[in-house]
């Protein structure tokens, strides 16, 4: 019995291979069969996609709308950041691909993920982006390290973006130590 099944499966594979290898032309009956098979397959796939119950079809857009509004806000924020970088920075450092890759490199360097940072840096260089901008941005980030909250990812991302736009931001002074007057015991 299993021999018959294997023979049938092998014959089916051979037939499909012959169909796929046949030259396509208007007078070729195999090409006609291929076209009919493709149309039949497309119809079956379309029927399978429409077979969802009505409850699932109506629930899907509502869930997507909630997520879409959050994603839409994030996407518009990213677009705004890219346009701001293009407006403020002259040259290739303001190009969207340079901004995206460069900020990623600086963030990865900050988190000590040097292998990934260097792979991204290779891409950054390949796009013709200025490598000096990475250096001054990272320097700015190091100088403003006290304003980064390690528990908030947005804090690092915001500071990286601010340093990318203006890498010569004045360094924030360290927190003032409480000045104690020396006391003498007499």
Q: Compute the number of helices.
A: 7
Give a short account of the largest sheet: none
Instruction: Give start-end ranges of low-pLDDT stretches.
Output: 50-65
Radius of gyration: 30 Å
Strand percentage, roughly?
under 5%
Question: Level of helix content?
Answer: 55-70%
Terminal CA distance: 109 Å
Quick one: overall form?
A: elongated
Concise overview:
The protein is an all-alpha fold. It has helices spanning 2-21, 29-49, 54-88, 96-110, 114-126, 131-143, 153-165.
Give the tags.
single chain; 186 residues; mainly alpha; 70% helix; elongated
Describe what this molecule looks like in 3D.
By secondary structure, the protein is mainly alpha-helical. It has a domain at 73-165. 70% of the residues lie in helices and 0% in strands. It contains seven helices and no strands. The chain has helices spanning 2-21, 29-49, 54-88, 96-110, 114-126, 131-143, 153-165. Helix 4 packs antiparallel against helix 5, helix 4 (96-110) crosses helix 6 (131-143) and helix 6 (131-143) packs across helix 7. It starts with a helix and ends in a 21-residue tail after the last helix. Mean pLDDT is 73; it is low at 50-65.
Question: Helices and strands in order, then pairings?
Answer:
Elements: H1 2-21, H2 29-49, H3 54-88, H4 96-110, H5 114-126, H6 131-143, H7 153-165
Helix pairs in contact: 4-5, 4-6, 4-7, 6-7
């Amino acid at each position: 019995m299993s021999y018959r099944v294997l023979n049938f499966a092998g014959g089916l594979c051979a037939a499909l291979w012959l169909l796929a290898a046949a030259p396509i032309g208007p007078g070729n009956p195999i090409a006609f069969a291929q076209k009919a098979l493709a149309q039949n397959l497309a119809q079956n796939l379309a029927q399978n996609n429409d077979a969802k119950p009505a409850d699932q079809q109506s629930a899907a857009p509502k869930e997507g709308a909630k997520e879409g509004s959050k994603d839409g806000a994030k996407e518009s924020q990213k677009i705004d950041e890219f346009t701001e970088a293009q407006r403020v920075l002259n040259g290739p450092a303001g190009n969207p691909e340079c901004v995206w890759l460069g900020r990623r490199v600086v963030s990865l360097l900050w988190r000590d993920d040097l292998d990934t940072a260097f792979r991204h840096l290779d891409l950054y260089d390949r796009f013709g982006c200025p490598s000096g901008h990475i250096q001054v941005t990272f320097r700015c980030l190091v100088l403003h390290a006290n304003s980064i909250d390690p528990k908030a990812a947005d804090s690092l991302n915001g500071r990286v973006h601010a340093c990318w736009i203006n890498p010569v931001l004045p360094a924030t002074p360290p927190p003032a130590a409480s000045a104690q007057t020396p006391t003498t015991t007499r």
